[in-house]
Amino acid sequence: MAGFKHLVVAKFKEGVVVEDLLKGMEKLVSEVDVVKSFEWGEDIESLEMLRQGFTHAFVMTFKNKEDFTAFLSHPKHVEFSTTFSAVIEKIVVLDFPVVLAKAPA
Amino acid sequence: MAGFKHLVVAKFKEGVVVEDLLKGMEKLVSEVDVVKSFEWGEDIESLEMLRQGFTHAFVMTFKNKEDFTAFLSHPKHVEFSTTFSAVIEKIVVLDFPVVLAKAPA
């Protein structure tokens, strides 16, 4: 599946418990069918010069752009976005059709 | 495969031909065995407020952190990094063990 990706790179405000936020995010993706897969990670290796203060990446994959658009306006996503916006210090979001240039063996 | 990801979010300098750069990147990942998969995309949907000027995301997946570390010091990666550094206006890099919270069906 190449599909369409919603990539969020974030730095959270001081004191934010990311585990609690992740529970909400996992609940969201489990309840919304158009989210085909959800992966996330916390940076452990990048140089501060390259990381620019960001700590977490979240990647959701959809079948196509239409499914992603449906997700954006889904009430559960709208609700979660409000929670998420309140705890981030900075963010970068990219939404793109995926080009799979080297496929897993 | 959950694995370990190397995520690069970039904005290129004006006039850079991203297609040429991608050819170099595809050659690199095809020649270096530890790169298990390589996906990329150009943002088409995000709001400028969220995109922050960034236009492209590149995601390489490795079996584990050790393979990623081997990639970093691989002569072909070192060589390509020099080329890449010369054409970017800004960059965010995150390197993280992947948590697969919702797996593709």
CATH architecture level-2 label of chain A: 2-Layer Sandwich
Number of domains of chain A: 1
Rg estimate of chain A, integer Å: 14 Å
Hey, roughly how much beta strand do the residues of chain A contain?
A: 25-35%
- Tell me the number of helical segments of chain A per DSSP (H or I, 4 or more residues long): 4
Uncertain segments of chain A: none
Structural class of chain A: alpha+beta
Kindly report the greatest chain-chain contact and the residue count on each side: A-B, 50 and 50 residues
Domain Stress-response A/B barrel (chains A, B): 4-96
Organism (chains A, B): Actinidia chinensis var. chinensis (Chinese soft-hair kiwi)
Protein name (chains A, B): Stress-response A/B barrel domain-containing protein
Subunit structure (chains A, B): Homodimer.
Structure description:
Two copies of one chain form a homodimer. Chain A has 105 residues and is an alpha+beta fold. Chain A has a single domain (3-94), classed as Alpha-Beta Plaits. Chain A is 38% helix and 34% strand. Chain A has helices spanning 18-31, 48-51, 65-73, 75-87, and strands at 4-12, 37-42, 56-62, 88-97, 99-102. In chain A, strands 2-3-1-4 form a four-stranded antiparallel β-sheet. In chain A, helix 1 packs antiparallel against helix 4. The two termini of chain A are 14 Å apart. The mean pLDDT of chain A is 94. Chains A and B meet through strand 1, helix 1, strand 2, strand 3 and helix 3 of A and strand 1, helix 1, strand 2, strand 3 and helix 3 of B.
